[in-house]
Amino acid sequence: MMSHQQHTELLNTLHECMEACNHCYDACLKEDDVKMMASCIRTDRECADICGYLESAITRGTPYVAELASVCAKICEDCAAECEKHDHDHCQQCAKACRKCAEECKKVA
Amino acid sequence: MMSHQQHTELLNTLHECMEACNHCYDACLKEDDVKMMASCIRTDRECADICGYLESAITRGTPYVAELASVCAKICEDCAAECEKHDHDHCQQCAKACRKCAEECKKVA
Amino acid sequence: MMSHQQHTELLNTLHECMEACNHCYDACLKEDDVKMMASCIRTDRECADICGYLESAITRGTPYVAELASVCAKICEDCAAECEKHDHDHCQQCAKACRKCAEECKKVA
Amino acid sequence: MMSHQQHTELLNTLHECMEACNHCYDACLKEDDVKMMASCIRTDRECADICGYLESAITRGTPYVAELASVCAKICEDCAAECEKHDHDHCQQCAKACRKCAEECKKVA
Question: Which chain regions cross the lipid bilayer (chains A, B, C, D) (predicted)?
């Protein structure tokens, strides 16, 4: 069985998290108070990029799922913690996607 | 409406194409006759990477959907043409995903 | 001769541009008036990512140097135009790196 | 001082390693005995991609240098070990770049 078939749930979760983080990044840059969102913009990019990276790596059969998922889980948790500080819908949705993704990542880390 | 909401079908297709290309890459490297698959391995990586790139770029609201999709369409077509030369299931499935993705990319290019 | 040896100057320029854009992104997020820098933050990320992508693609012998460089040139020009609006040192330096990179990209596009 | 200024040596080493791995990947796919190089092709891509990822992440001021460098060091070591099995110039040069990069990564991990 190939790596990407073993990790269907993780792949879906990573994908949703990448989308939620990039959406939150985009929306934060359109907010009136961008300064308040600076940390969120930064962590959204970090989280979107590592989720996208891990997703692609799993589908190509990387032997480093555990190592990468461990880093990804930490970044997802930090991003969730940052997003939870803000009431915007995009932040709240992003926080949920990050929490879920951190949990899935920990299962394989 | 945000960019990623305008491009739901394209995003799904890019995602499936990225997965199919990376799966094909992985499977080609496990074939008995790897030499015959060398061009396929190479184009699979090119295609998986640009599809993943464009997918991520759309979700962050890139203003360059058309330009990137134009390049992506060309790479998808080349990857489809290469995969169609081979009878392996992973190649045939990858070719289909690439053809579909090329079509979706052309709609926005 | 391999692709990365034919493109030494382009590779150096892409690399400097990626660094300048990511540095500018980082510095913009630390400015007092982040809102004024929102477009710059966004275009810095777009430009850094495509420059890094093209750089990596050239070193792996991609057959798509011309197509990717054409998109990259456009993004570099847009990023330069945005950065030139701002007096911050990081913006001015980024604008220069982007102008130079756009020129190098056009040579192969 | 910004993150990318603290990590000049690491950035250079990551960059050289990314280039060496992608060059080795490209050259392996052109060898007569591609099958013998299958593991090398795979690990070259893994290593090139994580080195490029970390390099870009450092220049944008990522707070995750240590975590990412730890994963990168492991992948560099595995890639070096694989490349050292082969006499091709590109493999030997890649192995050296990977060993050096693993050392630099460990300093910050």
Answer: none
pLDDT in tens, B20-74: 999 999 999 999 999 999 999 999 999 999 999 999 999 999 999 999 999 999 9
Chain A environment of B4 (Cβ under 8 Å): 19, 22-23, 26
Asked if residue D41 has pLDDT above 90, the reply is yes
Distance CA A23, CA A18 (A): 8
| Integer Cα distance of B72 and B68 in angstroms | 6
Instruction: Kindly provide the ipTM of the predicted complex, given to two decimals.
Output: 0.94
* pLDDT for B2: 55
Q: What CATH number should be reported for the domain whose range is D3-108?
A: 1.20.1270.360
Query: Could you say which of D61, D67, D78 has the minimum Cβ distance to residue A71?
Result: D67
Residue of A30, A29, A24 whose CA lies nearest to A85: A24
Amino acid residing at C17: C
Do D34 and B30 count as a contact with CB atoms less than 8 A apart? no
CB contact at 8 A, C79 and C46: yes
Q: Which CA distances in Å does A98 have to A24, A72, B12, C95, D3?
A: 11, 10, 20, 34, 25
Instruction: For residues C24-39, give the mean pLDDT.
Output: 97
Domain ranges of chain A: 3-108
